[in-house]
């Protein structure tokens, strides 16, 4: 779109951001610029109902920003680029949107948002520095943090209509909305975040502390959740992302964020713990028949069989959805011939426990249940293995990619203890900055348990103390003498840290 369209608009009617309760927002670009921009005046929001319900708040923020001619034209230009067809070099899709909204919410726009938020914060006489003094610095929020979070909340409202518009243009389902919203919101956070402060880390620590406290106060419920394969840390990740995507934009200016955070997290955890577990009891007897001659016990057995079949269908759908997500993230998908080649190789050589462990760690946050991974057919496991290999290559983890494409000559489980016995290496490893960051950012309060479990050390031990040989790629001739894979232990250690940090929170 030419910059000429932004000229000579001062004589035209001002821009008005209007709310359509059924579709989203409209902006009178055609009337303002005196050009035909009808196709790009609508910002649809039906794909995310909670933001459609907040359309008035989104409109108020955008109305305050479109007074700046540069922002107004930038908004129109971005709306135009969201509607371009696939293959157009100027297209803004899911991958390009975070960078685009960061450029749109530039320092000038951010200063407008800051002035509005700070004036309201001062007018309401909010002072959480004295009202909420805590002993844990990691969980302590100050007025500086509160102002920045409220400013960020206002910025999220400004970009939310662009994300929902992209979802409509690219036909992204409502259930897949968390990732693009999270990416866009996190992209603009640096515009408001104080220097030297990691607000995302503080917010995640807050979510983590609230969830882990319930492991002691709600043991019965956690036992029930464990029976349906709900892990505390997977739950923390999901709740944190929901907190950012849905909770932060709901903040009202000039309010006490601490009270809102406490109420929001309490309600979300309560919903997870109680609303999904309605319990009713009824007597089951095998000697009492209904009108069709079926006893209550026989009816129960039939219901259980149906539930098993239903769980299998749901599980299959979850795995297929995970595959689609990964293929879209990678921009690549293996051919059926390539899958067959690797399935035959794994059938001949066997699936190594290390390969199975890495694939499980990668796909578990995406499917939610270990058995959905461990019970796959060999071709499906080959697809998973190829996906993780391709992901490692893209993320510049060459050692892990090569070990995943290899087989173990003899898995010496006991020999893995030799590495753990090397105290100098283990001490240097667990005290490294990367290891501490992994524990602090992704595990937090459970850091000591992670250290004690030795899960990362065991992953390093498995490849360091075993012999791995490269599997021939699809289309290559099988080598008469297999090539041994052997990478430096320090390189493997750092790659495993990076793998766990990324794979534990996919698309975060």
SSE layout:
Blueprint: E1 17-20, E2 24-27, H1 29-33, E3 42-44, H2 49-53, H3 55-65, H4 69-82, H5 97-104, H6 107-123, H7 128-131, H8 143-169, H9 178-188, H10 199-217, H11 219-227, H12 232-247, H13 257-275, H14 296-330, H15 336-349, H16 353-367, H17 371-374, H18 378-394, H19 398-404, E4 406-408, H20 416-421, H21 423-430, H22 433-443, H23 447-453, H24 455-464, E5 468-470, E6 484-485, H25 489-503
Antiparallel strand pairs: 1-2, 2-3, 4-5, 5-6
3D structure, described in words:
With 508 residues, the chain is mainly α. The protein has helices spanning 29-33, 49-53, 55-65, 69-82, 97-104, 107-123, 128-131, 143-169, 178-188, 199-217, 219-227, 232-247, 257-275, 296-330, 336-349, 353-367, 371-374, 378-394, 398-404, 416-421, 423-430, 433-443, 447-453, 455-464, 489-503; strands spanning 17-20, 24-27, 42-44, 406-408, 468-470, 484-485. It has 2 domains: 3-265, no CATH class; 329-503, no CATH class. It contains 25 helices and 6 strands. The longest helix has 35 residues, at 296-330. The radius of gyration is 27 Å and the shape is globular. It starts with 16 loop residues before the first strand and ends in a 5-residue tail after the last helix.
């Amino acid at each position: 779109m030419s910059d000429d369209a932004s000229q000579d608009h001062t004589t035209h009617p001002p821009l008005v951001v209007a709310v359509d309760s059924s579709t989203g927002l409209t902006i009178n670009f055609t009337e303002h610029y005196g050009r035909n921009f009808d196709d790009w005046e609508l910002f649809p929001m039906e794909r995310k109902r909670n933001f459609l319900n907040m359309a008035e708040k989104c409109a108020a923020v955008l109305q305050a920003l479109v007074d700046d001619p540069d922002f107004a034209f930038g908004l129109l230009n971005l709306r135009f680029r969201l509607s371009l067809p696939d293959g157009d070099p100027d297209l803004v899709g899911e991958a390009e949107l975070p960078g685009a909204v960061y450029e749109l919410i530039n320092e000038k726009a951010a200063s407008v948002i800051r002035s509005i938020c700070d004036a309201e914060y001062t007018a309401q006489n909010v002072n959480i520095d004295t009202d909420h003094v805590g002993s844990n610095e990691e969980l302590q929020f100050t007025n500086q943090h509160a102002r920045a979070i409220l400013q960020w909340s206002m910025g999220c409202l400004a970009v939310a209509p662009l994300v929902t518009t992209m979802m409509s243009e690219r036909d992204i389902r409502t259930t897949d909305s968390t990732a693009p919203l999270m990416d866009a919101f996190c992209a603009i956070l640096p515009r408001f975040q104080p220097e030297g402060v990691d607000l995302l880390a503080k917010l995640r620590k807050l979510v983590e502390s609230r969830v882990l406290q319930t492991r002691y106060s709600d043991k019965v419920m956690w036992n029930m959740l464990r029976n349906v394969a709900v892990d505390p840390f997977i739950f923390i990740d999901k709740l944190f992302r929901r907190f950012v995507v849905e909770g932060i934009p709901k903040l009202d200016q000039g309010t006490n964020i601490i009270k809102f955070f406490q109420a929001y997290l309490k309600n979300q955890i309560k919903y997870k713990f109680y609303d999904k577990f309605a319990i009713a009891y009824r007597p089951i007897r095998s000697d009492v028949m209904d009108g069709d001659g079926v006893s209550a016990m026989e009816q129960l057995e039939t219901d259980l069989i149906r539930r098993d079949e239903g769980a299998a269908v749901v599980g299959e759908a979850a795995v297929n959805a995970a595959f689609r997500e990964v293929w879209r993230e990678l921009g690549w998908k293996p051919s059926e011939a390539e899958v067959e080649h690797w399935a035959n190789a794994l059938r001949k050589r066997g699936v190594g426990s290390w390969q199975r462990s890495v694939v499980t760690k990668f796909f578990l946050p995406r499917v939610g249940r270990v058995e959905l991974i461990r019970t796959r057919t060999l071709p499906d496991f080959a697809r998973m293995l190829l996906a993780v290999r391709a992901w490692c290559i893209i993320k510049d983890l060459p050692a892990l990619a090569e070990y995943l494409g290899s087989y173990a000559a003899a898995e010496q489980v006991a020999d893995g203890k030799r590495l753990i016995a090397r105290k100098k290496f283990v001490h240097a490893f667990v005290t490294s900055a990367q290891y501490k960051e992994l524990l602090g950012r992704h595990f937090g309060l459970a850091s000591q348990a992670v250290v004690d479990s030795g899960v990362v050390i065991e992953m390093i031990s498995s490849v360091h103390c075993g012999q791995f040989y490269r599997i021939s790629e699809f289309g290559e001739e099988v080598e008469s003498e297999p090539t041994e894979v052997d990478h430096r232990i320090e390189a493997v250690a750092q790659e495993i840290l990076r793998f766990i940090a990324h794979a534990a929170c996919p698309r975060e």
